[in-house]
Amino acid sequence: MSSWIFGPVKALDQSAREAAVLRQQQLTKPLGSLGRLENVAIELAAMQGKVPTISAPFICIFAADHGIAAAGVSAFPQEVTGQMVANFASGGAAISVLAKSLLAPFEIVNLGTVSSTDFPGVQNAFIAAGTANMLETAAMTSEQCAKALKSGRTSLLHAKSHGCELFIGGDMGIGNTTSATVLAAAITGESVAELTGPGTGLDDSGIARKIDIIEQVIARHVEPGLEPLTLLSRVGGFEIAALVGSYISAAQQGITILVDGFICTAAAMVAVAIAPESRNWMLFAHSSAEPGHRLMLKHLQAKPLLDLQMRLGEGSGAAICVPLLQMACKLHAQMATFAEAAVAGKLDEE
Fold this sequence. Notes:
This protein is an alpha/beta fold and 350 residues long. It has helices spanning 14-26, 36-48, 80-90, 94-102, 142-161, 176-188, 192-195, 204-221, 228-235, 238-253, 262-274, 293-299, 316-334, 338-341; strands at residues 58-64, 106-112, 123-124, 166-172, 256-259, 282-284. A six-stranded parallel sheet has the order 3-2-1-4-5-6, with helices on both faces. Helix 11 links the parallel strand 5 and strand 6 (282-284).
């Protein structure tokens, strides 16, 4: 496994945090009246080491297929992964529309779809035609996992070369909620029944079958004290590993991570298990409608900014959240202080 994954994470700028707290106390509003927008601006100041600003994010979608799809864990056939990759590139997907609206650089990386290795407008980082079936063997070899992690790092460094201050990772892969649920169960210790949801739209019988399959995968691959990288290679996906690599690399480079929903939060959990200080660089965009997401967020002590009952993936919930972050920064930077506006401050209590 590449040694870079264990490299140091950049420290937050505590002096910038303190300056941001002081400024919030001087702005022409009752203290705390902008709620979590104030906290977001303070956290971004600590990450950026200055009065925070958010320009267009860099959005990167990682795509790959999953061998576990053969067990019938999804309401959609596996060829949808490749079809959606083509849809991303042609501008027809939700995240494509959102990226265009945000004027955001938008990259799509194919790590292993079963249908094709070459899509116009898509980065080809092909590892294999999907992971192996976790019911039969490990999803990835350690070498495949290392390649996927490195692909995530490559995309993050590419984003940095574009001046990225905010990184959004997204996912596409039929069957990936199953991998994400296994990872969540292994890391949180929560029950599979509590963590498992409909994914692409399973009915009750489909969810019951999915729970049974996930429990079989856990019995085969997960034991106490398992190293997070070993866990990732056994039950993860190429796109999930790439997200992990991009998140850890972002924290090492000092770039804010805006985490999307269920799949991306599973990747964030693995990243934090490998590099605990990477958690300092993560903001959580929204609460997924997938029922297990709240337990994953609880484990990470994360409070998402939005709850829109979304469960699309693709980085879409994170993209929706970007204007909120931009407004938080503008309020922090552009509001007048009491002194500047000649407005009387709060009366001192006797």
